[in-house]
Design goal:
Helix content: 25-40%
Oligomer: single chain
Strand order of the largest sheet: 9-10-5-6-7-8-11
Low-confidence stretches: 19-23, 26-30, 84-91
Largest sheet: 7 strands, mixed
Order of helices and strands: HHEEEEHHHEEEHEEEHEH
Mean pLDDT: 75
Length: 215
Amino acid sequence: MRALLLAGTAAIALCAFGSNVWAENAGQGGHPNLGSSLTEMLQKSGYTDIRVAPSSFTVHAKDQNGNPVMMSISPDEFAELTTVGAIGESADHSATKPADDAATAAASSTFVKVPGQDDLSSKVVGLDVYNKDNKDIGTIKDIALNPDGRTTAYIVSVGGFLGIGDHYVAISPSAVKVSYNDNDKKWHATMDASADQLKSAPEFKYTGRWDSSRT
């Protein structure tokens, strides 16, 4: 698009003023109206910071994206001499900018900053879970993750609280409050559940792919 605007501006300038008028006035420091008219046309095309050398009509400007551009306009030809992607950078270096931007975007989506309020699995697994009566009802033994890596359940061992052997239940993360206490510098897990509720809850068993991955 920019190339079409530049070429169109040059063509309008050449047609409007003609080679004879140009030749007659170039040696006299340029036609008094030619430079201003060329500047006006470039402004209408979206360029800013336009400087026109009166004798050679070498034009310095900035395109719609703010990139510096230098072009040369004569009665016989038009050429865009340089296009600078950023101040002080060459056109060749600018051509690699999209790849650099893509690499930066990929890196920013790969490496993230972990918010201070987030929990770590290493701090959650092994936590004893207490109910509202401050009774130890079980221990978080595992964390179930969906294919996107999001937590779908805490696997809690409740056998001891129920007075039986190993017995696991899968509990929704929203039902278990995990927090860090600044006073005792420890992590805590609590949930509102009775013995009857835990007894009637579906038992989670390590079978199939889950059993084979246990160590």
